[in-house]
Design goal:
The chain is an alpha+beta fold and 306 residues long. The chain is built from 12 helices and 12 strands. The protein folds into 2 domains: 224 residues, no CATH class; 71 residues, no CATH class. Helix 2 runs parallel beside helix 8 and helix 11 packs antiparallel against helix 12. The longest helix is centred in the C-terminal third of the chain and has 18 residues. The radius of gyration is 19 Å and the shape is globular.
């Protein structure tokens, strides 16, 4: 059951018109499973709540934290959905959840810049999502629904070519930092009914995230899948990609935690430590600055990791 605001948002985008898109590509929602809020990690929150929550509810972001009234995300949602979510009585729980359409079935999900783990949603969710070619913070002009997809498809074909869209599925990671079809899911994302699988990076085996994932399966019946994650040696971190401080941070993490390679679990461990004891990380700036550098290190891992 969708709320009036959610139905209005879908209708506003659907009115753009166009032809339907027939696809078996799933929506994936990438996230970092070990980031914390309210004293629990994201994956522990999934276990407790039984649903994926939007940034308006959690206050957690792997991009910009702008989900508040008058913030950038609020303003672009107002433009994209005709003010549907600015109506009186609309609550944070009503807001859309952001993922991406995994057109090429990449094993790292459609938008790995937002995290090493992802939820692969069931096909029925395609019908109550809207789509933009490119991230919505860039104010894209190509948007639609799955039954009015022409503008988004034109963007896809312009970027990758029509032949690429009809080719075989990719077995390689997509490493997508910028090029993806963003999906805005209207209505809830319930683990028991809307999620086909929870996919985790192998860096989290034998960690509390793995234990929480098993509990998610037991409680909600969601399959857990493992994929080989990215790894990189500090010496291989390029200074020109996200700035000269990022290679230095990689070396620091390697020495601090006695690890030869940087992976998703190591970056997450550091992110939690920055929040828990900011004074110990002051050489990397204030908390927001240190977390930004860690986010940049994750981007390096997506782009250059093995």
């Amino acid at each position: 059951m969708l709320t009036d605001a959610q139905l209005a948002a879908l209708a506003f985008v659907r009115a753009v018109g166009g032809s339907p898109y027939r696809t078996d590509a799933p929506i994936t929602i990438n996230f970092h499973p070990d980031r914390t809020a309210d004293g629990r990690t994201v994956i522990e929150g999934l276990l407790a709540d039984g649903r994926f929550r939007s940034q308006f509810e959690t206050g957690i972001s792997n991009g910009g934290l702008t989900a508040h009234p008058g913030g950038d995300r609020d303003r672009w949602e107002e433009r994209m959905f005709g003010g549907a979510y600015q109506r009186p009585g609309v609550s944070p729980i009503d807001r859309p959840k952001y993922g991406a359409l995994n057109v090429f079935h990449h094993p790292d999900g459609a938008a790995p810049r937002f995290g090493s783990a992802y939820l692969r949603l069931r096909p029925a969710v395609l019908e109550r999502a809207t789509y933009t070619f490119g991230d919505s913070f860039r104010d894209p002009t190509e948007f639609g629904t799955i039954d009015a997809f022409s503008a988004v498809l034109a963007g896809l074909e312009r970027r990758w070519g029509a032949s690429a869209l009809s080719g075989p599925r990719s077995l390689r990671p997509g490493r997508a930092l910028d090029d993806y079809v963003e999906a805005q899911v209207h209505g809830p994302v319930e683990l028991a009914t809307d999620v086909a699988a929870l996919v985790l990076d192998t860096a989290f085996r034998d960690t509390p995230c793995a234990a929480a994932a098993l509990a998610v399966t037991a409680r909600y019946g969601v399959a857990v899948e493992w994929r080989e994650g990215f790894r990189i040696a500090p010496a291989d971190v390029p200074p020109e990609f996200r700035g000269p401080s990022v290679p230095l941070l990689a070396v620091y993490l390697s020495d601090l935690y006695d690890r030869e390679l940087v992976d998703a679990e190591l970056i997450g461990r550091a992110a939690r430590a920055v929040v828990a004891a900011p004074a110990e990380w002051s050489r990397w700036g204030a908390v927001d600055e240190a977390l930004q550098l860690l986010k940049y290190l994750w981007h390096v891992l997506v782009e250059y990791g093995h």
